[in-house]
Amino acid sequence: MGYKNTGVSTHYYKKNKAMTSDEEKRKSLYRLFRLSATFVFVVAFAYLLVKGYDFITTDEYFNVKNTRIIGNSFVSDNELISLMELPEGTNIFKTGIYKLQERMSSHPWIKGVLIKRELPNSLLISVDERMPIAVAEYKGRKYLIDSDGVVLGRRETLSDDRYFPVIRGVDFKGIRFGEEQPPEALVEVLRLLDAIKKKKELTQFENINIDVERERIVLRLDDYEINMGRGDYEKKLHRFVEVRGDMIDRGLASKKIDMRFLNKVVIKN
Description:
The protein is an alpha/beta fold.
């Protein structure tokens, strides 16, 4: 028995195919619309950015008019501003912050600088100054030294009359102001000064002098002359405090003490 082909399946297939084709066209058009809209948005946004940048970098409203400096005690505001070499009328967004910081940090007394923009037209400059802790005598002149061994300048550059420990015997030949490469002998002295600072019993001494020789460092605390040798300064100073107390109790008048060795203290007449 045979079956008659009515053509329904073929008609349904063609209709379904047409619907699928229309749906794909609609999706393609939608994707094209979204892509076009995105492109237009990006172009418009980029245009606004360029125009906005051109405005804020050229309008006089954003020119630097105020410079505020904090943290400086030894270096004046005018001296720091002159180091910036910032032309008048410079736009705040065109100031090379890192370049300005580098220029200001070239000063021997300046350890670091941080510059921030304060809209619409101000710069805030935070200065980290070096602090002198000692005076080094070299070839008849006196130089200020900080805790890193940096030579800050001549003693005359400091206007007040504060007292500093005096260092002698360090060779500063070839050393420039602000250079962070102290001689090895000075590094050794700085270790001793740090140990002295930590020992509160030594704050009573008004005069601190340090003489650097080949194999030893001689520390003078007022009338006391102490041969410190090299190294182990904290332990040696602790021992000195003990020995000095014992000397006072026993009524010993000697002021010369050899402390080169931790396990042996020699008191000289």
